[in-house]
Amino acid sequence: MPCPSDTSFRKRWSEIVAGRLGIVIALIVIAAVLALLKPHFLSAANLTNVVRQVSINGILAVGVTVVLLTGGVDLSLGSLVAVTGVVAAHLAHPGAFPLAVPIAAGVLAGAACGAVNGVVVTRCGVPSFIATLGMMTAARGLALVLSNGRPVSNMSPSLTKLAGDVGGVPIPAMILAAVALCVAWMLRNLRLGRYFYAVGGNELAARAAGIRVQAVKFAAFVLCGALSGLAGVVLAARITTGQPNAGVGYELDAIAAVVIGGTRLSGGVGGVWGTLLGVLLMGVIGNGLDLLNVPSYYQQIVKGVIIIGAVWFDRCHQSAGKERGV
Amino acid sequence: MRALRDVTFELRRGEVHALMGENGAGKSTLVKILAGLHAPDEGEVRVDGRRVTLRSPHEAMRHGIAMIHQELMPVPDLTVAENLLLGREPRGRIPGTVDRRALRKEAQRLLGVLGAELPVDVPMRALSVGEMQTVEIARAIGTQAAVVIMDEPTAALSDREVEALFAAIRKLQANGTALVYITHKMDEVFRIADRITVLRDGRHVATSPAADLDVQRLIALMVGRELVGGRVRDRVEPGARVLTAEGLTRDGCYREVGLSLRRGEILGLAGLMGAGRSEVAAALFGLVPAERGEIRIDGRPVRIRHPAEAMRLGIGMVTEDRRAEGFVPLMSVRHNVTLASLARCCKGPVIRHAVEADTAARAIAQTGVKASGDGQAVVELSGGNQQKVVFSRTLMPDPEIVILDEPTRGIDVGAKAEIHALIARLADQGKAVLLISSEMPELLALSDRLLVMRQGEVSAELDPLTVTQEEVLKHAMPV
Q1: Does the ipTM surpass 0.90?
Q2: Is A295 a member of any domain?
Q3: pTM of structure
Q4: What is the structure's pLDDT at A324?
Q5: B223, B254, B272 — which closes off a domain?
């Protein structure tokens, strides 16, 4: 799916599903099987649990979608979650600052790290894989330094409430919904959003069209960093501490969800709605394996196989649908 | 829609059989079936009278059919010898190893068949496009192909490399190999082809010995109507100078190049491939700035370090390599067209989709892009329509100065005529046009003035209305 542009709802919906039929079918089939095996799966309590569990991966995945669209990659998400969680936790001791301060600090810290990624990629010409791999290691170290290697506890309840519910809906899920809506709106309606697709689709053509390619890439890294910061704050609220060892491997879960959702690793094609489908698929599978009492070691194997299988099915379906010289 | 309908095509040993037709006529589909890249819905392929199924390039190769692709696909960091024998390396004594000495020897032998003197130990990326082509042909010889398919082999070759290619083709021919040759270049067809098959809209139109056809007749068969040649526009009184460049220099590319563009005038830039024309254009548009020299616009000196700056100064450019830097392939026609002037369709940073659709529709109508809708991905269009998309994008910001680098390369005759008319219209509207082309008739038909470049320097300024092709060539050939 090139970037979406149609106005009618039905067309929008068909675009959202188009090219991701495999994922939608997989989601439905798995949900149906689970509902048959474990009727509890469909209970409100369990479904709420699923969306709560996918929220953090979802926020990260939406952020990294943007970087992948520009043809880059960001491996530093997991470490940024740790750094920003620690930063937020430090500023969230009871009575220290108003709630907005730790949240803003976490997001800004993430954005700052993203900006460093962006500078290294666009100014120094280091491939994003390497640049963000470096950041992944360095940011983890920074998290350990800032926390002295120990969890930062004594968190104000006003922040931990961020992981709670309002009217039965988990707040992290609401945050994810808001983030997804904002980024989807931006990709569709902002000039910058269009440029993300153009730069990932053909960097040289984008440059020849007068687009400041490096600035666009920089913006993608900053946005991804900021959303990683947000995810870091939400995670810290959920575990009520700033954990320097939190978020290990989160970047891979996020990237897996994005790719399952149909965004091309080489850039230019994809979007937020597909990513959400990918996040949901991974969440439902995890939840289902829990319900079926599959031991966690085996869960990892099953998950890995399903990630590959989902993308494979999707690719087969696409290549059967249309033959393109791409 | 069917790409190919009920086409019969027969190939004889030792002949060069040209396949002609506009883009979208079905030439590529036909040869892709022969090369095992596409399966036909109906019909059959026979080799030496025996019916064969060709489900993959590998299978086609087993039946002696080799294809040399439009875009060459060598492995750039392997050596010439390794590329030549890729997949057929002579085995060494230890299983899994390659006998490197035998590899070099066989590579040299294959190149020797073509009379090509190329080093076999240098990496492929060190070769020119023409030399890579030679390697590809030698590879086809190595597989003992009875049929060699060439899809626009000369699209990126210099005149001298074309000669070498033709010599190689004659050698293949003498060995009894049959060649299928796809090209858009008329002069080539009549020089190299024994027989010509014309396709139009996926149907077979004619097969005839080349000797029985001439250019006019062939074009008429291809487009189904007669096209008139000759000057596209009358000479006009040029307007004021808008852009002057003096002493533009980039070491190793071009030296002390000076030129001026005037309103309402088309300045042609002739020269052989590698003469530095595209590089000068790239400097004017800020793609690769010149190291020294001065550019003035309306008399004021300017610095152009990025296409965005060039566009702000009223310069637009259609770049040479359409596929590589012309358009965003998977993006829709509409989004490609508005890419360079999206700010016009915006309120602040927000795109107004209705305005964008309107603006795009007007630009598309102006250049006559044919697509199933403006939502179609550009990669799905024919070459000519892709180029019209690039024109639409370039012209949408309404530039005063338009640089066109090989604007009709690889597109069919019909679309070419439309683009020529469009270029003439730009000049009529008072824009200053810089036209770079390797096709002499195109330059002579459109230009008001003609500059010739040779080895990075301007070698002559000629009057396109009186000069002959031979004379232009004389100034273009290296001394």
Answers
A1: no
A2: yes
A3: 0.79
A4: 35
A5: B223
